[in-house]
Amino acid sequence: MDRFTAVERALRNAPPHDLLAAARAALGRHYSATDIELLVADYGMNTLHPLGAPHYRSEVVSAHTGAPGRAFGSQQPYIPDAVGSEVATLHLPVTVRGDRIGVLILCLPTEECSDEVVAELREISEILGHEIVVAERDTDVYLQARRAERLTLAAEMQWQLLPGRALSRPEFDLGAQLEPAYAIHGDNFDWSTSADHLTLTVTNGMGEGIEAALLTNLAVNALRNARRAGLDLQDQAYMADQALYGQHGGRFHVSVLLLRFHLASGQVEIVDAGSPRMWRLRDGSAEPVELEAQLPLGMFEDTVYAVQRFRVLPGDRLLFVSDGVYDVSSPVGERYGDKALARALTSTRLLPPSQVPRAILGELAGYRGRPQSDDDAMILCLDWHGRPDSGDGGEPEGADTAGPVGR
């Protein structure tokens, strides 16, 4: 058995709560690694927290600066220069299909730190990430380590509902974030992929606190139930609408943007049932995409929803935002609005989708003049690559039925 396989087996056989101890033992035995630590990103994606250590301020490091922040942000191994040193310190991103979990830090004898070894250790850090995701079903250790402060009960419910915060496939990359991270109420997002499709939902439940979280939870699970039953997009919206109306009789509603991407062609089906909005960045130009606005889910009995169709092209970037973004006001009462959103989308065009939401939310905080928002804010960014063999390099006549005109 080679050493890579030995470490992989040790991680897979480790108890859910004890992955770091297993990694320390296996990496020390097979790679002569020492001083092994795992830093876990907090819910706000602002800080990195040592796993298994008390959250003293001196132990928490920035997710954006320093050596750990550099590896976390670039998603590449980072080894600070240590000229003449006998020990090299490696910072390895811990990531699962594009979803950034944290950074694995370890020290190696300098003569052992070859490109081949670094590549092996980077793959081991990815395996560790996968094991953490699986282990979270059975232990709270990793979820507790992510907390820079206490979550509200509503926020706990919303974060447990999410599929992740990023996803990468050859056809696309996407990233999303909710704010305020530790007190979110009704905003949410969800996605599911298959061999041929990506289904994406952006949700905004009315109300505040537990009521909003319960409402969104019902809507998301109703949509999942319909999707997993094999229903088309139109019927998914109808079934979720009926579930909400049956529970609340029209007193509460949920705004949803529901999309289904055909991965081979870039064709997209959309049901616009409320306030979340979509923007498109194409060839350097940012524009809101006009959609046919329909009733939010749960308002009336037997609402019928219609599907719109348009097409994304390789190189397109789509941005989805909730009303907690475009309705933000400055200290003098000026609304954030379309111009600021277009500027933010253009200014972040060189960032990967996993970092775009955090960057725009940071700009939003500066605009309103305080770090915390009075309303939920949700941003999701999707970069479309397409399939190299799909031949979707041009815009077919009549394919885009959703035009670049804001509501």
Report on this structure.
The structure is a single chain. With 407 residues, this protein is α+β, with helices and mostly antiparallel strands. It has two domains: 3-144, 2-Layer Sandwich (Beta-Lactamase), CATH 3.30.450.40; 151-384, Phosphatase 2c, domain 1 (4-Layer Sandwich). It contains eleven helices and 16 strands. A six-stranded antiparallel β-sheet has the order 6-7-16-15-12-13. Strands 3-2-1-5-4 form a five-stranded antiparallel β-sheet, sandwiched between helices. Strands 8-9-10-11-14 form a five-stranded antiparallel β-sheet. α1 packs parallel to α4 (115-135), α6 (153-161) runs parallel beside α7 and α7 packs across α8. The chain is globular. 42% of the residues are buried. Mean pLDDT is 90; it is low at 394-399 and 403-407.
